[in-house]
Amino acid sequence: MNSKSIDMQGGSGLPIASGASVATDALVAPGDSAAPGGAVASEANGGETFDVAVIGAGPAGLTAGLYAARAGLRTAVFEQLSPGGQLAQTERIENYPGFSEGAGGFELAWSMKEQAERFGVQIINEGVSSLDLALPVKQLRTPYGSYSARSVIVATGARPRKLGVPGEAQLTGRGVSYCATCDGSFFRGKTVMVVGGGNTAAADAIYLSRLAERVILVHRRDKLRATPVYHDQLAKLENVSFMWSTEVRALHGEEGKLVSAQVEHLSDGALETVPVDGVFVAVGTQPNTEFLAGALPLDAGGYIAASETGETPIPGVFAAGDVRAKALRQVVTAVSDGAVCAEQAANHVAI
Ligand SMILES: Cc1cc2nc3c(=O)[nH]c(=O)nc-3n(C[C@H](O)[C@H](O)[C@H](O)COP(=O)(O)OP(=O)(O)OC[C@H]3O[C@@H](n4cnc5c(N)ncnc54)[C@H](O)[C@@H]3O)c2cc1C
To answer: Whose CA is nearest to atom 7 of ligand 1?
Structure first.
């Protein structure tokens, strides 16, 4: 692997937060109230209570903000990084209606942010670290200050799940990545492994097949969970091979760069060392709900269990997008959730 192939600092080979910061730094436009710092934000707030505080400026949060502000509600959207969420890290989105040729994820996220701001959404670039939700006026705390709101929409999304094997943390950004579209171009002409068996793993393998010389898809089962359309596409790709019923047990590096993955064949427990330049982990996502710490009930996976209209068990608190327990985590469902939650929040505030 040459130096270019491992120079992934700032790609999402780093924890997703870092990938997002690279992809979306430019989204913080001069003049945003988004400048980190409680003083600025608190002055902007004027000490008043927001009608709606949205936590997270991904597609769900920006849409919730758009609908709430357009309905005349005093609306703030809190974001710990830069607006756009996972969408801003997506090179191209082809399944969002209205874009017959597809759309750049970054550009679409930018447009969502601008549209929300046009209707008066105040974006506050501060991560919410804790909440008090029990009283009618909710309290939100960030590292820079405290804010109050009459309703709260949690739209904090999700992040990629880790393999949890030796070497993964040390080699993240040095051959290990969680976003093929972000980091795939570092591996032109190389050998890469994709770990997982769902739609993301299949899509990643297809995407990487156009860049890498060889793609090895490692899956712990004997067939993919991905939808059939992916099976057909993968079958046609000569540079994609499969290692069925195998699990990655360790990742090895030399001089700080990934050089191989150790996999276990589950049928007989045999270990095999596979030389690879890159490993793309696509084994699911983890909700960004740690900061809720008992403030809201979560399901076993850590997702917020909300009703069809986004209501949680706490009056005035709603959940939208990938952070919810739901069947399909996509931009189109995230924006739908955001709109529905804003409507519910408006109804709540009007009571
Ligand atoms: C590589 C990749 C490719 C994808 N491709 C597609 C595709 O082709 N089509 C499609 O429909 N979907 C795609 N998706 C999925 C899609 O991007 C997500 O479903 C969608 O972005 C979810 O939106 P969201 O607003 O719920 O969450 P996110 O997009 O995850 O946004 C959540 C936001 O909340 C912020 N946040 C988290 N915690 C806090 C906190 N405590 N305080 C303040 N802010 C916080 C995060 O920084 C983030 O900006 C893709 C995702 C990835 C990663």
So the answer is: 93
